[in-house]
Amino acid sequence: MIPLSVLDLVPIREGGNVSEALQEAGKLAAVAERAGYKRFWVAEHHATPGIAGGAASVVLAHIGHATSTIRIGSGGIMLPNHNPFVIAEQFGTLDALFPGRIDLGLGRAPGASGIIARALRKDLHRAAEQFPQDVVELRALLTGDVDLPITATPGLGAKVELWMLGSSLFGAQLAARLGMPYAFASHFAPDHLDAALETYRTQFRPSETLDKPHAMAAMTAIAAETDAEAELLASSQDQGFVRLRSGDPGKLPPPVKDYRASLPVSAQAMLEHLSVARAVGSPATVRERIARFVERTRADELILSGATFDPAARHRSLELVMEAMA
Q1: What is the DSSP letter of 184?
Q2: Using CA atoms, how far apart are residues 302 and 292, in angstroms rounded to an integer?
Q3: Crossing angle for the helix pair 18-35 and 311-325, nearest 10 degrees?
Q4: Of 44, 98, 175, 239, which has the maximum CB count within 10 A?
Q5: CA distance 231 to 234
Q6: Higher pLDDT residue, 111 or 134?
Q7: Whole-prediction pTM value?
Q8: Torsion-angle region of residue 155: left (phi > 0), alpha (psi -120 to 50) or beta?
């Protein structure tokens, strides 16, 4: 069976708060661990009213204490928002707390508006241009493979698994050049999926940590006892995505029956565009759609997103997906 992992955005439900979202993330990670998922990743988002994972490394410390064996990491840290030295210290600390369990997925997109860039005191355009050099510096701070004038403590010698994230050819090319595993964000940006994976595999150069290409692809996956129930659960995430793309992000809303049918054609098309990396339905439906996606991508791993308004529904979804694929 292909290894499965979980991507969690630490969603804040309507009527809920940050504290509740963080507690639910810990519970979800524990469910994923018991069900047999390989990794549990959280993503860095800033000033987003429905997402509580902005301080990703702090959230991971919480997740680490809620679990004991599952790998935990970032999907990802947007490196232009930071400097390599601080990230080396943060993830070196996480490795010291949870040895052999830490992944560090790195993204180039700053994911921040102008006002957030000012709050971060960063020139994000310039920082994005320096992303390749910053990745090399960060890796050197952890491994010592390049002689640097400063030592990260914690950091140096930490056994952190570095990943390159991407939704375009740039990340694929850089991951290939540096000999890093590569994760593609096909759950929300599938346009360049096939080209990016092909580029990564054909241009890959072996490194000290990876001798052949290793690609992970992201999917939205929500399972329930029936297709209709799963689609109802998925309507919360659909609403959130439409609101985000419409410039009106908010907290995760309750499910709405026949939500997609109520949308204008343009919004329906926007959601349908993501269907290539979407497995929502009964266990049989989810199994068939995941199998089709794996056949297309030849991915070495999958990472599954899929927020539900009721946390218990996502717990059950993770269990049903794993049972279906086993």
Answers
A1: E
A2: 12
A3: 20
A4: 175
A5: 5
A6: 134
A7: 0.96
A8: left
Q: How many CB atoms lie within 10 A of CB 151?
A: 12
Q: What secondary structure does DSSP assign to 25-44, as a single string?
A: HHHHHHHHHHHT-SEEEE--
Domains and CATH numbers, the chain: 4-325 (3.20.20.30)
Please report how the helices 227-245 and 283-297 are oriented relative to each other, as an axis angle in degrees rounded to 10: 60
Residue partners of 45: CB distance under 8 A and separation at least 6: 9, 51, 53, 54, 111
With contact defined as beta carbons under 8 Å apart, do 184 and 167 qualify?
yes
Residues 6+ apart with CB under 8 A from 59: 10, 22, 25, 42, 52, 53
Give the DSSP H/E element, type plus range, for residue 203.
helix 193-203
Classify 36 in phi/psi space as left (phi over 0), alpha (psi -120 to 50) or beta: left
Cα 197 to the chain's mean position, in Å? 17
Other C-beta atoms closer than 10 Å to the C-beta of 227 total 15
For residues 203 and 314, what is the distance between their CA atoms, to the nearest angstrom?
38
φ, ψ dihedrals at 157, nearest 5°? 90, -5
